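User: I've been going back and forth on whether these two constructs are worth ordering. Before I decide, could you fold them both?

Assistant: Sure. I'll take them in the order you sent them. The first construct and its structure tokens:
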Amino acid sequence: MGIGDKPKFDIYIILIYLALLLIGWLTIYSAAQVSQYNGILDMDQLYGKQILWIGLAIVIITFILAMDVKFFERFGSIIYIISLLSLLGLFVFGKELNGAKSWYSLGSMTLQPSEFAKAATALAVAKFLSGINISLKNTRDLLLVGLIIALPALFIIPQPDPGSALVYGAFFFALHREGLSLWYLSLVLVAIGLFLGTLVLGTWWIALIVLIAMSVIYMLSRKRRHKKRLPKPRIVLFLIISGICVLYSLSTNYIFNNLLEDRHRNRIDIVLGRVEDNQGVGYNINQSVIAVGSGGLTGKGLLEGTQTQGGFVPEQETDFIFSAIGEEWGFIGASLVIILFMSLCYRLVIMAERQKNQFARIYGYSVAGIFFIHFFVNIGMVLGLLPTVGIPLPFMSYGGSGLWGFTILLFIFVKLDGHRMSYEH
């Protein structure tokens, strides 16, 4: 693309975006349990408000695509700082809803800054890593980018909103693409596995034996490949890691019983099968699974789902919207939504790889990671495979903040990609 040429925005991403918006709105309309139809712009109904949020999202898209492409890189750090201040301001000026102080009240509207913080953090990470002489092999640089990612998450957790904080693990995809070793992800997965294994088995030493066995297998495989004995420093490191694992495993019950809230402990217990509570904390998950299972192959039809129309699934318009799709659209409809999200993530990775500019590539991988985590965790939660952590399904769950936040996140990258042939440092 030469200077003055028109940008070429990726049509596939735009079509996927519009398809998800349409399916989401139809599902919100169905989940509203309308007794009297007063038009799609009825502001007393959630589907009417969502039309308004969608209209404003189109305005946001127009504004983003009309901006100077270099604006986002130049002011990425400033946008990130403003985002952090908006998260901190919640502790003083925030409005509490459903036990969480995560919103600003703007008259009859509410705004959730954590939904916009993801795009701001992605810009900041891309800005930092694309700087001159920045390398993830440098401990200082690694710690700094880790701090950039951790700060918004640390501000979000006390609201409390651990689900939104969980999403920041998505930045590993971008960091790995830029050279971060898979060992860091392995350590996180081992920590999670050891934690859950200790809870499920009820004793720390069985989980530890499994961990040590896996470590020994790994070391023996490396010894066989290199045809020599493992160096003493590697053996010492293994012993140190084993000791840390023992202490970590011993502290599992304390962490679980004292640092997590009752609702989070109960949800984890239900998913792990340690308790059964279909009428209490587990009610949402149980009703959601019933709704999805009752849809069969082709579903019961729009406005025909008994679970959906009867209002048996709480928060179905937001976090549990996929259960309405499963019931009324069936396996075919649910599979279509999953394919759309997988196509979205796959296309984003392709777009990220074709970037000539490092800032755009890092931002693209961050966007792909964020959408994947949201899609994976939300659907896993609705199907009862993961604990209920309260994160929305992008472009489909009801709400202006979520829709606008995801739209901004996506279309900044659409803008960067559209100018990829001419966009340089």
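The second construct, handled the same way:
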Amino acid sequence: MTQDTTRSLPGPRSSTAFGVTSRGSLARLGRSSGEERGDFARAPRGDRVVSDHSSRPGARQETLRESNLLLLTEEIFSAVEPLSRADLAMRTGMTRSTVSRLVDDLLAAGIIREGSPAVGGGSRGRPAVPLHPARATLAGLGVEISVDFMAARALDLTGETLAEEIIDGDFRGSDPSEVLPRAGAMALRVAQQATARGARVVGTVLALPGLIGADEHSLVLAPNLGWRGVDVVPLLVGEHRDAFGGFIHAANEAKLAALAVAQELAAADQQEQTFLYVSAQMGIGAAVVIDSVVDVGQHGWAGEIGHISVEPEGPQCGCGALGCLETYAGKRSLLAAAGMERSATAQDLVERSQRDDDAGRTACEAIDRAGWALGVALAGAMNLLDVHDIVLGGVYGPLADMLRPRIEKELNSRVLSAQWSTFRVRTASAQSAPAASGGALRAMRCVVDAPLQWVPQPA
């Protein structure tokens, strides 16, 4: 039986928007390098059947319209500054009349909205009307189940949070047949709140801390939850399938969190991001991000850095192997090494480490050992991947200033290219449940990938 409490949350707040990323990066929002192989696959296109237009005689005009709508959508969503119809015509080479018709389609679909006409500038003719992603019309739903909380968040096309809920609890060794329906009930409440604000939920992505099956419906293994071989989607949605949108997928929690972080950093730096994301809750998850695209590997299982052995004869990990990174730098191991209860927080650990007594010194030694283990594992990843930016998330955020010196020491001594490279170890924002945001962002890909499927059809 799990114990939990519902956390009181503030009202809707802005999140990283599709439109504030650097130009060109939006087209890959929610995708991965394995997508064309079916891994971390693109969400189905809306709730209508999509056929291969190119194989049907006489369908060339519709195919061209679909391609042009996709092009305009990507231009609008990836622009740093809002574009007008005239801007789109100039960028794409389409005629103004064609752009105008297609923009009308996107307006009718609730994908974009018109801003206030620009005034001044000395140009002749009608004032330019800027085009923006639409607000509270379509929404993606992200659901996250972690070891010590579950969360659901609905985002619209601007990235604004329309509704969210987080429930604290202890889900280690839990029964998925109990936990997943409760997470589904929470997600249903969030979906209903988003709908009450005028949005239509297009789809749902469930984030789990483990290996996800190729069907994106099943969990292969989540060691820290104690789950194995679970068909998670039916348990999540129950009898309320329609409320979750046109599709429901499961994906790895760390990869979805990395997606949210990539968008956040791209917005801040105004350029695409390449980094190795490492996050700790009870276990340790990671994801490789190349030019703002999450690389998931051939089977979608890349990034399990927590189960890299940093000491072959080290303590036994929950996965059965010896000396895994998690046994040194996972939250549970960190707290145990510091002599603290497993219910303690990262901030509690920071505060104890500042004490001038034996308890403080023990805490500092535990953090230093975790930094050593992280440095060893990350050095191996850097030698293999040639990625020199590291972003720390989860429990590592509050500990970053204490972990960084030992991580960098190990990188400088173990990475072959160290003398010609610059390493950067930084932290993600303190946003709670980033994988829920990543799930919602990925769900929204179906709109940007196939805008025609959302355009109202003639009666």
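Notes on the second construct follow. Residues 155 and 161 are 5 Å apart (CA to CA). The chain has three domains: 62-115+129-133, 138-245+436-453, 256-428.
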